[in-house]
Backbone:
């Protein structure tokens, strides 16, 4: 077997163990000793990953890439409900990726925020394309341009995730946080796109 192939197999073994460790326990409770306890020599781990942060970021990137690839395959177009249903299916079927995804966007390790924001770029770009497709299917108010709507979308999305990062959610079970986030995200997007009030017209 060639050296490159052996290196890839080794990295895959490390990543499999790391996804489980970080996916079950989160960044702070996870331990490299536990990962090495699965039969991976510590020297081999450090040969492939500089430290715990580097390995965690690799797992976060794998999680975001997996979700983005899955959503692209669903080809939901401007169907907001179809998009949200696809997200929920992915989260239900991928326990470790789900935990890593939500920890990264809601409660990231402070020292890794910049790196995690960079990892999110492809996922955010995909969401922006979806939002543009939805905007193209509706009639905007005369005073609102597509540029305005996109800027507002980015701003409100950050505020929405910031709310779920607040102490209000610190003591809730992780599954409850995920469920609440997804239910409220669907409502939030619907409110933002279609408004709150039913317009009445006098006869």
Residues:
């Amino acid at each position: 077997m060639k050296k490159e192939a052996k290196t890839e197999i080794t990295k895959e073994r490390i990543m499999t163990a790391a996804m489980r460790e970080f996916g079950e326990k989160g960044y702070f409770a996870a331990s490299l000793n536990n990962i090495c306890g699965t039969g991976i020599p510590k020297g081999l781990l450090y040969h492939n990953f500089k430290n715990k942060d580097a390995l965690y970021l690799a797992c976060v990137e794998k999680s975001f890439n997996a979700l983005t690839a899955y959503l692209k395959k669903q080809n939901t177009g401007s169907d907001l409900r179809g998009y949200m249903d696809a997200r929920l299916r992915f989260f239900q079927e991928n326990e470790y990726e789900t935990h890593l995804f939500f920890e990264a966007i809601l409660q990231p390790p402070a020292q890794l925020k910049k790196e995690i924001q960079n990892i999110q770029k492809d996922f955010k770009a995909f969401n922006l394309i979806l939002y543009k497709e939805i905007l193209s299917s509706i009639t905007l108010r005369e005073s609102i341009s597509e540029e305005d709507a996109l800027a507002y979308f980015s701003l409100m999305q950050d505020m929405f995730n910031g709310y779920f990062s607040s102490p209000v959610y610190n003591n809730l079970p992780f599954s409850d946080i995920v469920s609440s986030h997804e239910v409220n995200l669907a409502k939030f997007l619907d409110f933002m796109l279609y408004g709150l009030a039913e317009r009445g017209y006098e006869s």
Q: What stands out?
A: The CA atoms of residues 12 and 186 lie 35 Å apart. The radius of gyration is 20 Å. The chain has a mean pLDDT of 88.
